[in-house]
Amino acid sequence: MTISDRGDATERIRCHRGPVAVDVDGVLVPGRLTASYLESLRPRLLALGVVAIMAILHRDESGPKHERRAARLFARFLPRSVKRWERSLRHEVGAGSTVEAVRSHGDRLALRSDAPAPLLAALERVLDLNPGSSGALAAARSNDQMIVTSETYADDGGAIRAVVPDRPRTSAFRNTYFPFRYLSVVKRPGARYVWKVAKEDLALWILGSVWLATNPIPHAFGLVFLAIAFWAIYEYGYVDNDRAADRFERTPQLTEAYHEQAMTVHWAKPVAVAAVSSTIGLVLLRWPDQPTLGDAAAWGAVLAVTASVFFVYNRIDKTTRVLVFPVLQLLRTGSFAVLVPTTAVADLAIATIVMVRSFHYHAYRSRREGWPDDDLTAVRLIVFASATALLASQDGWGTLVSATTVSLLLWQAFLANRTIRTALRRARWIASGE
To answer: How far apart are CA 374 and CA 66, in angstroms?
Structure first.
């Protein structure tokens, strides 16, 4: 039996005489108990950093597991943080009719949550329950048991189910912005996006220009900060992509994290990060001289064009997006060239990556079966090496021994290393008759 009307459910909870099991998340607290605790920690970026480390160490697990590990760690080594959070939890739980109805069951009440034990103990104190109420359910799965939950689709084995406040189950730090966080938490959960950008995009920026720089070290660090600025804007394009899909598409492909409102991003935050990072990046790039207004204008134009192209891309039909996608990839891989000189080989590397990524995207839109699993790094290496050889045949074979050419070839080989080894293991000489 399921009672889904909020008022009726609250009244039935109050009148119920059997054992009651309550889902803490979404019923007694607005979101998740673990997320509430983590967001109370200060400095907030330290807590966010620990969650990020847990995600790196256990990248095959879901986000809530990372948060539970981090919460367990903080609760153990910073017990006072639990006490401070408990005071704010009293205001968060409040004294609504549902909470009072649940509280009235006393010894017949059991709490259900995956939050660490110290957090559940704090909630028991807030609700004035006996210690251990969050333990095993009394008369679990008995006929007279009531399950109080916010999940309308849960199966509780035939017990009476009271569905009350339908509130979102959010991740921690929902309103905390940090570059690449939306990509890692919402758009591509579990993906190591920072590493992906560093080894593919940033590496190209540095290797394609650092050999021509007068001061290579400040030059390289300047490009790092410019990359952060660029990706703050580019990532917001993904935020807008999800929102536009949710608003305009009939069958949007959105992750569960998006539906759970795991993170919200206001445009002003990435713009502020981009402005600060751009300033630092331009100063380092021109060190020991000062950046000019022309530098600032050129880079500002790159960011503005990137945001505009992404805006258009997000609002056109998916077939036409195939034509706009290469423009986004050109901005992503080659935007650094508006500020620093490059060689013809570096330009070939940019063109190769844009071409291969665009081919991959075209396959995705054509097959309509999800993003292709093909790893095209080996193909990219072969195309780039072949194009470089053709260029050398025209401009002189000395092109092949330049620092830019050698470093870019080694970099492409590094990225394709695993794919090449796998291909060689699987290769068979069919002329042998096997």
So the answer is: 29
Under 8 Å CB-to-CB from 333, ≥6 apart: which residues? Answer: 201, 204, 350, 353, 354
pLDDT in tens, 239-265: 999 999 988 888 888 887 777 766 788
Q: How many CA atoms lie within 13 A of 1 on its CB side?
A: 8
Amino acid identity, position 45: L
Which pLDDT tens digit goes with each residue over 163-207? 665 555 566 677 778 888 888 878 887 677 888 899 999 999 999
Contact 408, 208 (CB under 8 A): yes
Q: 3-class DSSP state for residue 22?
A: strand
Residue type, 292: T
Residue 160 has what pLDDT?
63
Alpha carbon of residue 303 to chain centroid: 21
Q: Which residues are CB-contacts of 365 (< 8 A; sequence separation ≥ 6)?
A: 318, 319, 321, 322
Omega prior to 165 cis, within 30 of 0 = no
- Determine whether 53 is exposed, middle or buried from the number of CB atoms within 10 Å of its CB (0-12, 13-18, 19+): middle
Taking the model in full, what pTM does it have?
Answer: 0.76
> What pLDDT, on the 0 to 100 scale, is given for residue 158?
54
